[in-house]
Automatic annotation (TrEMBL):
InterPro entries: BON_dom (IPR007055), Lipoprotein_DolP (IPR051686), Transpt-assoc_nodulatn_dom_bac (IPR014004)
Protein keywords: Periplasm, Repeat, Signal
Protein's organism: Bordetella genomosp. 5
Signal sequence segment: 1-24
Record's subcellular location: Periplasm
Main location: periplasm
Name of the featured protein: Osmotically-inducible protein Y
Pfam families with a match to the protein in the record: BON
Amino acid sequence: MNTRKLIAAIAIGSTAILGTTAYAADDGKPKQSVGEYAGDAAVTTKVKAAIVAEKDLSALDVAVETNNGVVTLTGTVGTADQADRAAKVARGVDGVKQVENKVKVDPAKAK
């Protein structure tokens, strides 16, 4: 169990460090200021940490992206309860304005 948490923490830390590198791709989305981008990166990190803290969820199964305070969750979990729990955890994080839960359920992943 500790190994799983360590791997998740490393993944979160790597995402936080690598995720703060902004690049100027024209993807059609509205542009964010540096402050907005940094705020979104902080929210993403907090949401991932909250997911790691949940014993029934894995940060390796749920991806988190934040844009202007709107958190989008993606990935695949084993049960609908896990997908709902991920959204509830994300909503409880300071700085989250809205949660879009796009997590898919695959019973084959159930523990």
